[in-house]
């Protein structure tokens, strides 16, 4: 079984105390995972859910609002111009969302 990305999340109550990833992937998936770990450390589950929803919107909706409120995550906005690469940028986000909700395995296949 192929596992291109694994996330390791350490919670302290409702907050993400630490988050790291391991895996191999394209530059987009690696960059997105790196930006994600930086953006969500120290945040509550509710805050992470808001960021997740905003990033998903940024990646998938052509008329998404400007991304200045996302800081460095705004760099991901150009990915939506390449629909085949959206899954590269969103895999880590879907994986984190699943880990925080039910721990399910996420796949792009």
The low-confidence runs, each spanning 5 or more residues with pLDDT under 50, are none
Q: Report mean pLDDT, rounded to a whole number.
A: 88
**Structural class assignment:** alpha+beta
What is the number of beta strands?
A: 2
Shape: globular
- Biggest sheet overview: 2 strands, antiparallel
Q: What's the gyration radius in Å? A: 13 Å
Q: Percentage of helical residues?
A: 40-55%
Lateral strand order in the biggest sheet:
1-2
- Output the number of helix runs: 3
| Beta-strand residue percentage | 15-25%
How do the SSEs run, as a string of H and E? EEHHH
**What's the end-to-end separation, in Å?**
12 Å
How would you describe this structure in keywords?
single chain; 109 residues; alpha+beta; two-stranded antiparallel ribbon; 45% helix; 16% strand
Q: Could you provide a short overview of the structure?
A:
This protein is of the alpha+beta class.
Could you please describe the fold and organization of this structure?
The chain is of the alpha+beta class. 45% of the residues lie in helices and 16% in strands. The chain has 3 helices and 2 strands. A two-stranded antiparallel sheet has the order 1-2. Strand 1 (5-12) and strand 2 form a beta hairpin. Helix 1 packs parallel to helix 3 and helix 2 packs antiparallel against helix 3. The longest helix has 19 residues, at 83-101. The model has no long low-confidence stretch (mean pLDDT 88).
